[in-house]
Amino acid sequence: MTGFTEALPALRDAVRRDHARYLDDLRALVELETPSSSPHAVGRAADWLQQWVVAMLGQSESHTRHDFGDHGPTLVFDYPGQRPGRVVLLAHYDTVWPLGTIEDIPFSVTDGVIRGPGVLDMKAGLIAGVHAIRHAREHGLALPALTLVCNGDEELGSPASRPIIEAAGEGALAALVLEPGVGWDLKTERKAVGVFELRTTGIESHAGNDPEGGASAVHAIAELIGQVADLNALDEGTSVNVGVVTGGTGRNVVAGSATAKIDTRATQVSEMERVDTALRALRASDPRVGVELLGSWGRPPMRHDETQRPLFERASAIAAAVRAPLGRRSVGGGSDGNFLAARGIPVLDGLGASGAGPHARNEHVLEGDVDDRILLIAGILASVGE
Ligand SMILES: [Zn+2]
């Protein structure tokens, strides 16, 4: 922490003085709506980000824009360091909010609460990350080389940006994920999420006149749902839920088709494999009924293991200097940090902003925490790998 603690009082004043500028930058990005499903709209925000990041941090050593057509662009900015090693900052700028949400929930700052579509998840974090880099540099803190990744398809599971994120993480000292935290806690464990659909196809017939001629897809799926539910292993951190079941066309018809939608979560790769294998092996006891499984596991799990602990402890010491030591949270869903944690890179997730209601209409950021978050990110950047 050499350097950071000494610089902290001056840094704190500077961040406070710049608070209005932070809000202006956040407003500009929030008002450029970026639903993941509208790559064109996401692309317009990418244009703005390219100019803004360069205005804030200067022309980057290399600056790549990956356009994908059906997914929002991913931007990668590389900056040289003043000391060895490199840190990756991950920020997505797409949101779950459809175009026009800004009319219902305009950007606002009232009584210490910042609102607007995507403000918590995670535009406030992206803006905070860039402000933190600038403040750290202006106060003469020696930083490692930095790679800032801004992706526009995170809310879709990062299908197009995943290889770019993995490449950016290669050889990095650490990855800082600018997703929201929970209060002053970071997200140190995130489960893997699997989304599957089970489909059965039987033979339709009249239930009264020709029961033997039919093979019921509904009876078959009912039988299989029991087997799916048996895959739960809550002690192992694995949950398997059949959330939606549909099937059949009429009370007196032996059903020709049925589906079951499955959500599954796990904290261990071995458990992901166990569930995957079992789901793929499902067969109906009536051999005339076909069984098909669609879907897959998404991001791998992130655990608070030996690779992760030292970085967290270091960040917590910095947080203690800024305000208080960090707490830890385990959450059900994944982030882009999971990709890098799975590759053995230390990850700090949940650095972006504090507030509540991601993906909900009460989404908001607590204005009073913004400055401390910027200081925390700056302090971590100044200390990682030191
Ligand atoms: Zn997010």
Task: Write up what this structure looks like.
Helix 5 packs across helix 11. The strands form 5 sheets. A 6-stranded mixed β-sheet has the order 1-2-6-3-7-16, sandwiched between helices. Strands 4-5-18-17 form a 4-stranded antiparallel β-sheet. A 4-stranded antiparallel β-sheet has the order 11-13-9-14, covered by helices on one side. With 386 residues, the protein is an alpha+beta fold. The protein is 36% helix and 25% strand. The termini are close together. The model has no long low-confidence stretch (mean pLDDT 96). A hairpin with a 2-residue loop joins strand 4 and strand 5. The chain contains 11 helices and 18 strands. It has 2 domains: 271 residues, Aminopeptidase (3-Layer(aba) Sandwich), CATH 3.40.630; 106 residues, 2-Layer Sandwich (Alpha-Beta Plaits), CATH 3.30.70.360. The longest helix is centred in the N-terminal third of the chain and has 20 residues. Zinc ion binds next to helix 5.
Mean pLDDT rating: 96
Give the DSSP E fraction (strand runs of 2 or more residues). 15-25%
Bound molecules: zinc ion
CATH superfamily of the largest domain: Zn peptidases
- Percent helix range: 25-40%
Total number of distinct structural domains:
2
Biggest sheet features: 6 strands, mixed
Number of strands: 18
How does CATH name the architecture of the largest domain? 3-Layer(aba) Sandwich
Structural class: alpha+beta
Q: Strands across the major sheet, in which order?
A: 1-2-6-3-7-16
Q: DSSP helix count?
A: 11
Question: What would the principal axes of the Cα set say about the shape?
Answer: elongated
Give the CATH class of the largest domain: Alpha Beta
Oligomer: single chain
Q: Report how far apart the termini are.
A: 8 Å
Query: What does the radius of gyration come to?
Result: 24 Å
